[in-house]
Amino acid sequence: MSIIAFDGENSSVSLEILHDAAAKNNFIISKSDEDAFLLALQSADVTAANVDALPDYVDPRLSPIPTVGGRQYRKAKHNNLNAWSHQAELVAEKPTSDILKGRKITIKDNVSVAGLPHTCGTFPQLVSRDGKHPIATIDATVTRRLLEAGVTIAGTSTCENYCLMPLSYTSVNGPVHNPWLRNYNTGGSTSGGAALLALGVARAAGVPGLEEAGEDIDLAIGGDQAGSIRVPAAYCGVYGLKPTHGLVPYTGIAGLHPMIDFTGPMARNLEDIATVLTAIAGYDGLDGRMTPETPLRHNVLDYSAALKSSSQAGKGLKVGIIKESLTSPGTQPEVAEIVRSAAIKHFRAAGAEVSEISLPMHLLGAAIWTAATRNHMARLAVGGRVPDVLSHNMPHLSLRWPPDQEMYELLRVANPAVINVILTETFLSEKYGANVQAKAHRHVLELRAAYDAALESFDVLVTPTTPNVAPPLPDPRPEELGGSSVMDKFKLVVGTTNNTAPFNVTGHPALNVPCGWVPARGGDGGDAATSPGMLPVGMQIIGKRWDDIGVLKAAKAFELGGGGLGSWPGL
């Protein structure tokens, strides 16, 4: 590794600082080497200071697109689900298409929407230096593309604290309630988006208590690192797609780890999923997650047109139900049976072949996800560490790092999962170094190969999206004031993403499709006889990498065979 130039005159690096740096790396610099290493370190200091003194640069492709009336926002007047973060009415002055004209969309609050607060679901003092939620200064690529497609951005939806939670009790806005059953989770971390989509359906079905829930929406943009689009879609009875890795740019969105970062559409129907995907997919020249397989914008498939032309989508379709996903630890038998029976009945009714397949490695998927990502996740997601792939980070965010006692006290109550991620990174890095993570990355390729092999015999694979229906919300108060304990909160999330997280590391497209209802379980885990109401069940359809249209067509076949959420059974 070369040195640009010897330049130590303007550096404050002393011998004490040099030896301290060496001690932190567990070695002692000899007296004879001091001068050389001191000058090299001083030169590095001067080089970094010179770059730091440069005026900031923001790529013009992320400059805010002009909108009618500028960028204004407000807090929602009616919001008793806590699903809205901020409301707005943003319409491009000069859209380049009208495929989303007149449609209202909400954007997850980890996505940059210039002129609106960017909260990442957490406390303002943890994401800015002035103690206020920062105002986004750029439009994420997906934000720009949606506005160019004629959509109305109705605001940002609540997301979970640092997006590190598959349930909906951790946001700084407070817990997000499920529209189908108050005091139950919507799933996370795209909790608000799923709730706002389901709100209109629940109102139309006659679900009581939604008078003060406020405005609902047509479409939503979510983010997904382990299931954060698909889990809330399943719990709320809507559609949610995690596209193939690298199909949709992640530029301008707060991430957890480049290997598992996804953004994608959520909607009440399949056709809207296809239309939004058409609007946002394709290479942007900025996102290092994209590969040579990523289509250029002019080569992006018209998913909407392709879906509309598939009136015989079930004929010749081969569907494989992964056996292990039906019996993995923590799976509610009634959820597994709804998914299994719905897949068999409705795919076959559409002319498809359906059979069960044993894929033992699926049970290792979530463990591989954990070992492959947790060594660096805290610094990437919470500390603002720049990913090792070239990416355009967000100039308006200033994340607090290293952690301190105030941070611990805030997060132990709001989202103890963040503290767990911090502790896990420290421990795994110190005990295992890079070895386990490196081995896990090799196993990611093995896991991908296992799914690819199954997809040589089947067009799509099917699992329950989640092992259960939405659990009750915990008491958000501190334990010492009568609220739920950290352990109680941890118990709620165990196993939630076991069927979804594997496809984040392998990159396969995966879609939640609503497929029925089962009784909710009470806080004591009671049975149907004591259930307070009914909640949606989600089926996950997985396809070949870069065959997102195959997943959408399979979902259409399921619908053509009579599948879907069905009518609300009532309380």
Task: Please explain how this structure is put together.
There is one protein chain. The protein is of the alpha/beta class and 571 residues long. It has two domains: 38 residues; 477 residues, Amidase signature (AS) enzymes. Helix content is 33%, strand content 13%. It is built from 17 helices and 13 strands. The strands form two sheets. Strands 1-3-2-6-8-7-12-13-11-9-10 form an eleven-stranded mixed beta sheet, with helices on both faces. It has a two-stranded antiparallel sheet with strand order 4-5. A hairpin with a 2-residue loop joins strand 4 and strand 5. Helix 10 packs antiparallel against helix 14. The radius of gyration is 24 Å and the shape is globular. 51% of the residues are buried. The mean pLDDT is 97.
Helices and strands, with pairings:
Layout: H1 15-24, H2 34-52, E1 84-90, E2 104-108, H3 141-148, E3 152-157, E4 177-178, E5 181-185, H4 191-205, E6 219-224, H5 230-236, E7 239-242, E8 262-267, H6 270-280, H7 303-308, E9 318-322, H8 324-327, H9 333-349, E10 353-357, H10 365-373, H11 377-382, H12 405-414, H13 416-432, H14 435-457, E11 460-464, H15 486-493, H16 502-506, E12 510-519, E13 534-543, H17 548-560
Parallel strand pairs: 2-3, 2-6, 9-10, 9-11
Antiparallel strand pairs: 1-3, 4-5, 6-8, 7-8, 7-12, 11-13, 12-13
